[in-house]
Amino acid sequence: MTARQAGLLIRILEDKPVKTSWQIDLPARAFLGIGQDDFNRALARQLQAIGFGWDVNAQDIRGRA
Known about the structure:
mainly alpha
């Protein structure tokens, strides 16, 4: 007997209606991200890594005021 046949037999014996759809409630997820200061530092590191602004130090790059 397959699992599908067993499920049908149990449903018939217990007189349960067939489910055609169901609702899944997912819990809220915490927002994961970085702030503007962290973004500016990460951008400065990446720009230095590709050789763009090789003579610019990370502390010299300022974010939006």
